[in-house]
Amino acid sequence: MAEPIGYNKERAQKVLNNHDVDLLIASSPVNVFYTTGLPVTHVAPNPILYVLSNQYPNLSMVRRDGEESAIIWSLYDSVEEFSWVSQSEVFRVGSLDAAIKVLLKKVEEWELGKKTIGIESYMPRYQSEALQKKFPDAKFINADDSFIEMRLIKTEEEVRRIRKSTDVTEKAIEACIEAVELNMKDTDLLKIARRKFVDEGAWGWDHLTMNIGPSDPEAPGLGTPVTPNDIIRFDFGGVWEGYISDVSRGVVIGEVPKKAQEAMDYMIKVQEYCAENIKPGVNAKVFREKAQAYLKSLTKRGFYLITAHSIGLECEEVHLFGPTGALDVAFEKNMVLDLEVWLNVRGQGLVGVEDCYRVTENGTERLSRLDKEIVIK
């Protein structure tokens, strides 16, 4: 039987008691993976469980005492290789109807039909409606916050995986920077990145965002050529054993435009201000205002973004603070954050930097290693 990766029974008990939840049902791939270890995500080495989830749904149920059960495809034979859930609590199904029948049966057996049941906002409608119809006296609540609260604090194993993911992501960025030439197309650079992730043993990539000058970073791969004095920005995230990273770096052939260099200098200072001042006990909502004030002390021009988002099983698990607001929570030891800061520069789009950091007892530890400056070739 496998050992838990990030799931902690005692932490789950605490979270469920804090939210007064008697039964927590995971239906999204990331939360089923988090609570069971089963490779149900789209980035698994063989994502067959994800692919077939429209026919054979994967679910996990966590009771208030932290004990778990799972519902999984009947033909999947390797549960013990990946999961720590007791074999007696793994229920195999061969259809959508069978999955719903087992789910309803277990809720009834556990005598939770009149209790508080937490479900994800992403739960498929046919599942949530079946629960609500069968148990009209139950109190159903949105449990997204419960899952996020559990996942915010990372175990040493989770940190190891994020660290390794960060390392292979930076190797992919380095490979692209080294290969960049004038007139080279973004399609060729994306091929290099994909190949590097595979060669380094990653499960794959979570995102391959990139832009050349003003091109749309969210829609690369259109054959856009590398042009002189335009920043080529690589914003990649690899996947190492299920865990994501997020790093961004830039390169230019020729000269960095003056305003872009000024923006980059500001953004590095702002990111380092955040990294130096985020500590356990510091409130994210209060700190957001301080970070924005610090940036405005450097420059008052341009549209900017300062974001600290939790990273782990998803690139952006939750924004601790960002342009649209912040959580009223304190930073804690072993949170893993991506600190990204951007300033919009005409003709170049967003110019800035982002790196992964781990919150330590006294501050933060940068998991990334690449120099932050724009590389000039």
Summed up, what is this model?
The protein has 377 residues and is an alpha+beta fold. It has helices at residues 9-18, 29-36, 48-51, 79-82, 96-109, 125-134, 144-152, 156-179, 186-199, 258-277, 284-298; strands spanning 23-26, 59-63, 68-73, 90-93, 116-119, 139-142, 204-212, 232-240, 243-244, 247-252, 304-310, 318-322, 325-326, 336-345, 349-359, 364-366, 375-376.
Describe the structure.
The chain is α+β, with helices and mostly antiparallel strands and 377 residues long. The strands form three sheets. A six-stranded mixed β-sheet has the order 4-3-2-1-5-6, sandwiched between helices. It has a six-stranded antiparallel β-sheet with strand order 13-12-11-14-15-16, with helices on both faces. Strands 7, 8, 9, 10 and 17 form a five-stranded mixed β-sheet that branches. It starts with 8 loop residues before the first helix and ends with a strand. The chain has two domains: 9-151, 3-Layer(aba) Sandwich (Creatine Amidinohydrolase, Chain A, domain 1), CATH 3.40.350.10; 156-376, Alpha-Beta Complex (Creatine Amidinohydrolase). The mean pLDDT is 96. The longest helix has 24 residues, at 156-179. Strand 12 and strand 13 form a beta hairpin. It is built from eleven helices and 17 strands.
Q: Topology, please?
A:
Blueprint: H1 9-18, E1 23-26, H2 29-36, H3 48-51, E2 59-63, E3 68-73, H4 79-82, E4 90-93, H5 96-109, E5 116-119, H6 125-134, E6 139-142, H7 144-152, H8 156-179, H9 186-199, E7 204-212, E8 232-240, E9 243-244, E10 247-252, H10 258-277, H11 284-298, E11 304-310, E12 318-322, E13 325-326, E14 336-345, E15 349-359, E16 364-366, E17 375-376
Parallel strand pairs: 1-5, 3-4, 5-6, 10-17
Antiparallel strand pairs: 1-2, 2-3, 7-8, 8-9, 8-10, 11-12, 11-14, 12-13, 14-15, 15-16
